[in-house]
Design goal:
The chain is an all-beta fold and 479 residues long. The chain is built from no helices and 31 strands. It has strands at 52-59, 66-69, 81-85, 93-99, 106-115, 122-127, 136-141, 153-157, 164-169, 180-185, 194-199, 214-219, 226-231, 242-246, 256-261, 273-277, 284-289, 299-304, 313-318, 322-323, 326-327, 330-334, 341-346, 357-360, 372-376, 388-392, 399-404, 415-420, 429-434, 444-450, 475-477. The protein is globular. The chain starts with 51 loop residues before the first strand and ends with a strand.
Amino acid sequence: MPRATASLLCALPLTLGPAAPLLAALPPFAAPAAPLVAALPLAPPPDDAPLWERAGAQARDGFGSLLVVVGDVDGDGHPDVLAGCPAPFGGRMGAVRLLSGADGRVLLEASSRVPDDRFGASVDLAGDIDRDGTIDVLVGCPLDAASDVRSGSVSLVSGKTGSELRRLPGTRAFGEFGRGVAGVGDLDGDGAPEIVVSEPGPAPAARAGGAPGRVLCLSSAEEGGIVWQQRGASAEERFGACLARLPDLDGDGIDDLAVGAPGARPAAEVTGRVLVLSGADGRLLWNTFGFEPGRFGSRLAPAGDIDGDGSCDLLVGDPDALVDGLPAGRAWLLSGFDGALLRGFAAPQAGGRFGSALAGLGDIDGDEGPDLAIGAPADAAGGYAAGRVRVFSGRSGELLREVLGSASSAGFGAALAGLGDLDADGTDELLVGLLDLGGPQAEPGAVRALRGKSLPAPSAAPPPTPPAAPATPATDGGR
C-alpha cells in the first residue's frame, strides 16, 4: 500500500476510503464570546524572544532533527520550511511537516503507515513530476522494508493532491536507499525532472566485502531508469552517507552534488572524504580527504560564496572528531571551486558533537558577506546535553554570536537553517531545531525561529579562527 503523503499546497483533510485523514487540517478557531472587559493592547514581545516556536506532536519522534527551507508555499511572501521527523526510536512512525516560515503554523502533516522506516530522514523539492503545474516533493525512507529487507525507498509526493505519485524501492538489503535525496531538474529533456538518491550501504563498518555505496540519478518518469551513477571505493567508506545539493558550480546550469564518505581510509587511518559531482552527468569535479583521523564528510551544507570567487562554498562537519583524545567535533569551510581548505572551526568543549548541524546564513554582522552557523547539540554549557549554536563571520571566521540551550537534554542546535529577514530589520533570522523541550520526562522536540539581530554575543569570544595553512588537502579531479 502506498505510504501516506501530504499536499504542500492544500491543508484540507485527505482520506483514502474509510481510513483516518492522512493530512489533518488545523481546527478552526471558535468565535469568541463578547468580552466582559475591554481588551488591553498587547505589548510587543521582547527583542530577544523567538519570532516563533513550533513544538512537535510527541516525544522522541525526531522533530527538530532535519530542516529544509523551501520556497513560499502558502503565498505570504516568506519561505516555508520542511521538517523531517524520522522517528529514530523504535516503534514510531516517521513524518514530514510543512511549517509556515512566517509564524511556524503547521500547514500540513504527513506520516508513514509503517513504523521504523525512517520516513522523513531526507527531504527535498523534486520539480513537477506529474506535470500538473505544482512542484512535488521527495521523501527518503532509508530503512523501509517493502522488499522484506530494510533496503530503503524514496517516495515521490504530489504537491497538489498529496498522493504518492510513485515509490522507488531500493534493491540492496540494508542499503539505506534514500539516505539522501535531491532534485536536479530535467536532464534528458523528456519533461520529467530527474532525482538523485544516495545508497551508502549498511552502517556498521565491519560489514566488509559488500558492495560500495553509490549515488544514483534516476528518471522520475513512469518507466524510470538510471541516468547516471557513481560508486564509492569500498563498502566501508559509506559513500553517500550525506548528500547536499549545491548551486551550479561548473557553469552548465544544473545544480551539483556534494557527497560525504565519512569512512574513507586513504592510508592507515580513517579520515573520511568529500566529493563534488556534476549534477548533469555525475562527473567528479573535486575530491578532498579529511585533514586528520576522523569521519570528515559526516555532515554537509552549502555556505554561500564566502571567498567571493563566484562559487558556493561548502561547510563540512565531523561531530565525532577527537580533540586532545576526547570526542568534541570539528567543522571546516571548503572552497566550492576546488575543495581547498578555507578555514577550520574548533569545538568549544569536548563531548558536544560540534558540527552536527551546519548552515549558511545571510549577513548577520553587517559586512555584506554571508555568515555561518554551527550546532553542537550535546554541548553541556547550559546543562547536560542542552546544546549550543555558534554563528561565525564568513569573511573573518570571528565568533559573532552564541546561543546556549537552556534545558538539560534539549539538544538545541540539532538542525539549523537560514530563514531570510522575516521582521524586515535588515538582518536574516536563524532557524534552530531542538530534540526535547526539556522537563522531568521526555518532551517533544521543537523548531525555533530566532531574530538574527537579537542573537547574543559570546560571553568570552575566542580570537578569530585562522585561515587555512598553506598546505592543501589531498584532492583529485578538478576542472
